[in-house]
Specification:
Helix content is 40%, strand content 15%. By secondary structure, it is an alpha/beta fold. It folds into 2 domains: 139 residues, Alpha-Beta Complex (Aspartate Aminotransferase, domain 1), CATH 3.90.1150; 237 residues, Type I PLP-dependent aspartate aminotransferase-like (Major domain) (Aspartate Aminotransferase, domain 2). The strands form 4 sheets. The chain has a 7-stranded mixed β-sheet with strand order 2-8-7-6-5-3-4, sandwiched between helices. The chain has a 4-stranded antiparallel β-sheet with strand order 9-10-15-12. A two-stranded parallel sheet has the order 1-11. A hairpin with a 2-residue loop joins strand 13 and strand 14. Helix 2 packs parallel to helix 7, helix 3 runs parallel beside helix 4 and helix 7 packs across helix 11. The model has no long low-confidence stretch (mean pLDDT 96). The structure holds pyridoxal-5'-phosphate (PLP). The site of pyridoxal-5'-phosphate (PLP) has 15 residues, from helix 3. Its cofactor is pyridoxal 5'-phosphate. Homodimer. Forms a heterotetramer with IscU, interacts with other sulfur acceptors.
Length: 389
């Protein structure tokens, strides 16, 4: 029988059974619109309140600083457009990085077309933002700095506390796309001086189409979705009650398990990295230490990433490449080119992300299988053969 090994937890996760169980009653029994006054709505209002409290606690925020959204992309769009619009008169300059998720990059591109000035900071070969470069990029006109907490492709964790301190000192707002970090690494928005933070439930075993934006008290932000007075008038639309309940439960479980699970994942991650680096002409992308517990990203010289992914798929192993397929053409990943890889190098890379169901057996099997696949591909590669003979 074909084995099924999922190693793409950074793309999305399954919903944990305990999470689904918590959500179920809110589709059928407890369906009342939280905006209504009668008793069947009180139950849903209370459920939303409980989830909001739970989520706020995990990042050390206040309950009234959490606003539910339709996911990570909406939270990123809202944070950046909302701050840009609300502060337009103060300045029209935003600083971000070259390695952000497209939800941030394309939002910044959009604002650029509408008269805002955007600085895309480069990163070093490990994917780290340089604090001095950030400091120098801040001008009188800067209203927002948006730097991701942890990168979704190479797993690098940015110096968030230091960036927060710098932004505070300079009087500039600080947003972080923490979609990959929430539930995986400790976050304290107060200690880290974070003004806005994006998260998405489906990256920590909650439902898809569900996210939240943390907005620090007192921060001026325009709405993205206009309409009714839900989410204290800042994000309209009848609440996704089951989604909210699921997100709260999923994050509660993630926070409870974080210590133990991250140790387990780091052990598996490092075993996988060591195993893969034993394959000749293989290199690790991203930071060795400041790295998400479940992230592995490697380049196999003389082998095509897309073909590796398809060969693995054939035998039941799910991983991804760093490249995004846009308009039929395979573009090299903007993250891998930003850390200095050539177009060829970027196209010879794959990402393996580990999670709740990953076992040591899976890791051993993937190391062995990948070794065989890469060797076979290289045997058919002219450049490789020329070099070997
Ligand atoms: C997944 C992801 C997003 C997008 O979240 P959605 O819920 O899919 O919209 C944004 N940023 C990062 C870093 C991500 O990993």
């Amino acid at each position: 029988m074909k084995r099924e090994i999922y190693m793409d937890y950074a793309a999305t996760t399954f919903v944990k059974p305990e999470v689904l169980k918590e959500m179920m009653p809110y589709f059928t029994g407890y369906f009342g619109n939280p905006s209504s006054v009668y008793y069947i709505s009180r139950k849903t209002k209370m459920a939303i309140d409980k989830a909001r409290k739970c989520i706020s606690k995990v990042i050390n925020a206040n309950k009234d600083e959490i606003f539910f959204t339709s996911g990570g992309s909406e939270a990123d769009n809202w944070a950046i457009k909302g701050i840009a619009m609300a502060n337009e008169k103060r300045g029209k300059h935003i600083i971000t990085t070259e390695i952000e998720h497209h939800a941030v990059i394309n939002t910044c591109n959009y604002l650029e077309q509408h008269g805002f000035k955007i600085t895309y900071l480069p990163v070093d070969k490990f994917g780290m933002v340089n604090l001095q470069e950030l400091d120098e990029a801040i001008t009188e006109d800067t209203v927002l700095v948006s730097v991701m907490f942890a990168n979704n492709e190479i797993g690098t964790i940015e110096p968030i506390k230091e960036i927060g301190e710098l932004c505070k000192k300079k009087g500039v707002l600080f947003h972080t796309d923490a979609v990959q970090a929430v539930g995986n690494v400790p976050i304290d928005v107060q200690n880290m001086n974070i003004d806005l933070l994006s998260m998405a439930a489906h990256k920590f075993y909650g439902p898809k189409g569900m996210g939240a934006l943390y907005v620090k008290r007192g921060v001026k932000i325009d709405s993205l979705i206009h309409g009714g007075s839900q989410e204290r008038g800042r994000r309209a639309g009848t609440e996704n009650i089951a989604g909210i309940v699921g997100m709260g439960k999923a994050l509660e479980i993630a926070a409870q398990n974080m210590n133990k699970e991250s140790k387990r994942l780091i052990y598996l991650r490092d075993k996988l990295i060591d195993g893969l680096l034993n394959i000749p002409d293989t290199s690790l992308n991203g930071h060795e230490i400041n790295r998400l517990p479940g992230n592995v990203n490697v380049t196999f010289d003389f082998a095509d990433g897309e073909i590796i992914v398809m060969a693995l798929d054939d035998i039941g192993i799910c991983v991804s490449t760093g490249s995004a397929c846009s308009a039929g053409a395979i573009e090299p990943s903007h993250v891998l080119t930003a850390i200095g890889l050539s177009e060829n190098g970027a196209k010879s890379s794959i990402r393996l992300t580990l999670g709740a169901k990953t076992t040591e057996d899976d890791v051993d099997y993937v190391v062995k299988t990948l070794g065989d696949i890469v060797l076979k591909l290289r045997e058919n590669n002219k450049k490789w053969n020329e070099r070997m003979h």
